[in-house]
Amino acid sequence: MRVVLLIICVVFLSSCNTESCRDSVEPLDVMLEVERLEQELFKSSSADEVEKFLEYHVDFAQFFLHSDQYPSNDILAKSIFDLIQNPSIDTLYEESSQAFKDFNEVVASLEEGLGRLKVYYPQTPSPMVQTAVTGLYNDLFISNEHIMIGMDFFIGKNASYKPQQIPDYILSRYTTDHLAASILQFISSQYIATSLGDAMLNEMIDYGKSYYLLSKILPCTPERILIGYTEEEWKDVFDNDAIIWANFVENELLYETSHKKKQKFLGERPNVYEIGEKCPGRIGRWVGWQIVNSYAKKTGATLEQIMSEQDANKLFTQSGYKPSGG
Question: Are 245 and 324 contacting, i.e. CB atoms less than 8 angstroms apart?
């Protein structure tokens, strides 16, 4: 089972006209089962009813609420019932419901993305989708069987209550607009062969393959959103791609193996100050994506061939990548 709690990255799912969509395969038909558990849970009038809810939704209780950490379900049930009686949780519930009023669009994006992924990888699962409001306890749980969403994490910038443990520059991507791609990026990651070696280039290429695949299964999502950049950041990285690339080459970063140093260019940061004050975080991922795009265009390799390639240096060399120069 593949699971994750995501502090994540990435994606705008709102519908767009076909003129702005990239070429892609036609999706296979996928219909996901959806359970809006918050509606059921908030109807509970006693701790006993909450306990019955937990007993019926065993997987949700275990994976999303971590029921196995409690001596018994009745203790967890009482805690949850007390929570839903709190006036603050009513605010979270109402704001979550408003934020998710167009949730059918998110589900449609998930179904289309999974439908395209199944064209390439027929074994792709079709997980059950479950939503909940848990008082900012948990954001996402994803496995081959389940997609569990803590709605109260994805209300957006105007939420009355926000998760304190997530920095603002990451929290700005915690909206319903980002949900489908974040989920699909994790599900699709199981089809990406990890490059062999510890060099920064290897990780750059692996991230690049992930975004390349995501761009193919969500062809109507603006590419700048796939990586979580604003319009200004997206424009700046292309305007300054020669400077960015020169920094990687001149400082011999491509073959850097220090985890601490790699994280400066690949990890979550508001900016990569080593390159410039306006250089957005995760810039190494963006460069890796451009290398993979260049490789795909130059070699004509299929998506499956690109995802299975484990020789990052070979992919880089054959890509012939050169920045546009702004």
Answer: no
Mean pLDDT of the chain, nearest integer:
91
Backbone φ and ψ for 130, nearest 5 degrees, come out as: -130, 135
User: 238 and 324 in contact (C-beta within 8 Å)?
Assistant: yes
- In this structure, are residues 128 and 32 in contact, taking their beta carbons and an 8 Å threshold? yes
Nearest CA to 67 out of 144, 56, 150 is that of: 56
CB environment 281-292: b (16+ within 10 A), e (fewer)? bbbbbbbbbbbb
Beta bridge partners of 128: 146
User: pTM to 2 decimals?
Assistant: 0.89
Instruction: Report pLDDT digits (tens) over 106-160.
Output: 999 999 999 999 999 999 999 999 999 999 999 999 999 999 999 999 998 888 9
As a whole number of Å, the CA-based R_g of the chain is 21
Return the ∠ at Cα 56 (arms to 84 and 4), rounded to 5°. Answer: 75
